[in-house]
# Entry
Amino acid sequence: GDSVTQMEGPVTLSEEAFLTINCTYTATGYPSLFWYVQYPGEGLQLLLKATKADDKGSNKGFEATYRKETTSFHLEKGSVQVSDSAVYFCALHYSNYQLIWGAGTKLIIKP
Amino acid sequence: GAGVSQSPSNKVTEKGKDVELRCDPISGHTALYWYRQRLGQGLEFLIYFQGNSAPDKSGLPSDRFSAERTGESVSTLTIQRTQQEDSAVYLCASSFPGQTDLRYEQYFGPGTRLTVT
# Structure
């Protein structure tokens, strides 16, 4: 069945470092792909999305490109800040409007 | 505009008691979801509503769990005879499948933290 696999965390980086959080998926067809973020003490919120192959979603300096050939949707940011510390979830659209979720990757940014 | 709201924000209950968790989705959102998130873990799908009907209840972990939705609005998740393993954050989300470019986006509430002692 459809599934999402994320890199295990926590990922610990220094401020201004380059970030990559890997996400790969298994799906039939061409699902829409999402990154959600959960800041400490807050609810989940949509960070970015891509709805078809080669689309690039971007928001708040984060980017992710929908790669059909490698079935990936890796999250990247060129220069992270302490405020980016959060848990990041990759998800794909499933049938009946449901999402299939990765396990989440905790990101810790040290000043 | 108003987002998804949930109440209570925190609930501490004794083992064996029943609890009700409430979700108010964004107005006009016809789809509503309940998830469970145990400490340090990902989201566990519980149930999905389209309007007032629940086409997918596959995630409910046992018959102690039930949910209903009325008026295509408020939803209540009920856990009967709570157990310690029910302790988690219960998240509600809503979406508007009718608008193509937003169809699969889910908007989350802040969650209810349930602690069973």
